[in-house]
Structures are given as C-alpha cells and as structure tokens.
C-alpha cells in the first residue's frame, strides 16, 4: 500500500476547505507507487487525487507545479494541480508537502494495442512540441553525467561479463554523443512507462506522475517510451507498435538528422539508465519503505537486445 502517512477524514475535510472543490465525502488510500502517499478523494462535486510527498528534493516541487500548469494550459491530458482560493497549489498536510489534482479517467494499459500506441505517440509529440517553450529549468538527474558518476557503485555486484558490458557501454555513450551538437531540448516526463498513463479504452485519459520531470534531450524521453511500450518479452522491438508510436510522434515533431543518427545509442543509454537505477535500489540505496524493488533484469535484457539487434529503422512521419 503506497500510503506511508495515514490521513483521517477530518484532516482531509479541513484541507479541502481551502479549495473550491465541494464538500468532503470519502477518502481512499491508493495501492501502488514507491515514493509518495496517494489518496483518492471524493467530494459532492468531483473526484480528486491527493498526494503527500515523502521523499525527494522538496524545493524542486515548484518546478513540477509550473510544468503541469503549463502543459494543462496547452490542453495536454495531464492533471494540472488544483490551486486554492488564493491561487496557491503547493500546501502542507500532516507536515508533508501536498498537492491536490483532478482524478484522470482510465486504467494503466498492461499490453498496449496499436491504437493506444498511436494515441501516446501523438500526445507525446504534441507535448514535446510545446515543452520546448517552457521557461522552467531542472537538469536531467539521470543523464549521461549520472551514468558516468554512478555506474561504479554497482560493479562489484555484477559478473565479470556484466561489469565489462556496463563499462563499455558508458564509454560508447561518451564517444557517440561527443560527436554531435546539442540535441533538441525541452521539458520531458522522464519516466513515461505504461503505468504512468491512463486509458479509457483506446482514448488516452491522462499522463501522470511527472516527478521525474526535468529539462533535457527530448529524444531521451522518447527512447524511454519506446523501450517500455514496444519491447517484446525477449527485449527485441515489436515492429508494429514501434512504427505506430514513432510515426504518430513524428507527425507532431519530426526528428532532426542528429536525433536520427544517435537514436540506436539513445535506446541503449536509456536501457542502461534503468538497469543501473534498479541495481542501485537493490544493492546500494534500498527504498525507505518496505517495498519490493523493480527487477533490474528486465532492462538488462532490453540492453542486450539493443546491442545485439540495434534499432529498427525509424519510420517517416505520417499525417
């Protein structure tokens, strides 16, 4: 259960009085998640989500509020934070930073179909198009510099072959990206897995959990999506889902030639990013709460498949 700080009905009812959202009816803790306490709140007017922030850098929360406000203003399907009667979104509840959101419709897609891939590709292309003009800035905390600094911490826990694999990949990334000028930049989600989307049938109801959001390479965001949304169980790419998602994305934001050139290496780098981050949680920095870490082996498999088979050809944009 992802409720690390329990709340009473009375606490939440008093909290809601700061907002124009109606009168409290019920409170339900939300299962799942690994970092924050999340609750579904029902009033006599609407359904809401209340999040208490348990970990992380709390001084960075205004960046997330500004980003979600910005994307919501541009009519992207994101939960724009609800501001109180004085125009303030970020509050404190039970001595934790707290945000209130509208509850978005839908469920997480376990096995996304082509229509869902098309919808996500189209929306992510739109999001990246407008996010290039977002004025906020938060450096990508999981970029190549992080890989260079952190991969040494897990090497002693790996087999000799995997130690060589990880070190060689970091060296390859350094060499490959040094050959190109800065790639297109903007605000990115940073963790757009299937379980951070909600679908009502084939309609994308919402993109949620922007707490890995930052500014950086748009291609980094796209590669995370492709590795999660279009990989088969053996780590290879599913051509239909891959072409559908990327074709829809490029109809909104065609990739530059430099992006196309580094695409295979970006897929490998984002696979290593998750293999490493999950290894760190297992061996070096376990979660603060009694939760089961994600299995690092999934992205170890994906990385080896990208090395063995490369990337599928990038489709051309279709309109």
List the helices and strands and how they pair.
Blueprint: H1 9-16, E1 24-29, E2 37-43, E3 47-52, H2 61-73, E4 91-93, E5 96-102, H3 114-131, H4 144-150, H5 160-177, E6 185-188, E7 197-200, E8 203-207, E9 214-217, H6 218-229, H7 239-252, H8 257-283, H9 297-309
Antiparallel strand pairs: 1-2, 2-3, 3-5, 4-5, 6-9, 7-8
Helix pairs in contact: 3-7, 5-8, 6-8, 8-9
Structural summary, described in words:
Keywords: Amino-acid biosynthesis, ATP-binding, Kinase, Nucleotide-binding, Threonine biosynthesis, Transferase. It catalyses: L-homoserine + ATP = O-phospho-L-homoserine + ADP + H(+). Belongs to the pseudomonas-type ThrB family. The chain is an alpha+beta fold and 319 residues long. The mean pLDDT is 94. It has helices spanning 9-16, 61-73, 114-131, 144-150, 160-177, 218-229, 239-252, 257-283, 297-309, and strands at residues 24-29, 37-43, 47-52, 91-93, 96-102, 185-188, 197-200, 203-207, 214-217. Helix 3 (114-131) packs parallel to helix 7, helix 5 (160-177) packs antiparallel against helix 8 and helix 6 packs across helix 8 (257-283). It has 2 domains: 9-102, Phosphorylase Kinase, domain 1, CATH 3.30.200; 114-309, Aminoglycoside 3'-phosphotransferase, Chain: A, domain 2, CATH 3.90.1200.
Key descriptive features of the protein:
single chain; 319 residues; alpha+beta; Phosphorylase Kinase, domain 1; Aminoglycoside 3'-phosphotransferase, Chain: A, domain 2; 2 domains; 5-stranded antiparallel β-sheet; two-stranded antiparallel ribbon; 9 helices; 41% helix; globular; ATP-binding; kinase; threonine biosynthesis; Homoserine_kinase_II
